[in-house]
Amino acid sequence: MKTKQTGYQDEEFLLSQFSAADQQAFAHIFTLFYAPLCFFCTRLVGDKPAAEEIVQDILHKLWEKNQDFSSLVSIKAFLYISTRNASMNYIDKHQRKAKRELSFYNNLEQAEEPVIREIIYIEVLNELRKEINKLPEQCRNVIRMLYEEDMKPQEIADELNIKVSTVYNQKMRGISILKAKFSGAIFDMLMLYLLFNKMD
After folding, report:
1. Rounded distance, CA 1 to CA 193, Å?
2. Residue 38 above 60 pLDDT?
3. CA distance 192 to 154
């Protein structure tokens, strides 16, 4: 017999519990999707606190529709589409569309393919976060400060009380470990993202 804790790894069990309004099942789904949805929404609206409010509202709507889903794929589709639509409404309301459009598409409301690419990008970055969490402690801290907090090497060295050269070494160590986990185009995309964190 499955316990709830282990059963949540089984999609059918998780969905049955969620459909039955089990709050722990909802909490599990919330944990799966909250961070990538916030990142996705922030890239669209350009405002992290606003993005968090939008995503929380979307997840509340998911809870209200808990009996409407037959798979995690359908839940993911609902969450991303709803977040995308809510983001568009937010941008229209605040008349900031022109300032918030990203360089990879020209018209946010009409460009469906770039939004799909953005969703894929967020999903890949979510996998990257999972692997970063598995890195050795000092290496993990350095990569997180570069990748998530956009800190410079000297700032990281001061924060961790280590040499700047150690920051560089730990960054390269982290990249080497990640390279063993990812390959091909996925790894290239991840490296392009990491390179946006300036090393000067």
Report:
1. 44
2. yes
3. 22
- DSSP code, position 105: -
Rounded distance between C-alpha atoms, residue 42 and residue 47, angstroms: 6
Give me the sign of the Cα torsion angle 158, 161, 167, 173: negative
Residue ranges of domains in the chain, CATH in brackets? 1-120 (no CATH), 133-200 (1.10.10)
pLDDT 10s digits, 159-193: 889 898 998 898 888 878 877 776 655 566 565 55
Band (pLDDT 50/70/90 cuts) for residue 52 is: very high
Could you tell me where the DSSP H helices lie in 46-111? 48-64, 72-94, 97-100
Q: Work out the end-to-end distance of the chain between its first and last CA atoms, rounded to an integer number of angstroms.
A: 56
Which tokens is 95 given? Answer: 């008349």
Alpha helix stretches (DSSP H) within the chain: 4-7, 11-19, 23-45, 48-64, 72-94, 97-100, 112-132, 137-147, 153-160, 164-181, 184-195
Which helix (H) or strand (E) segment holds residue 15: the answer is helix 11-19
Q: Is 181 left (phi over 0), alpha (psi -120 to 50) or beta?
A: alpha
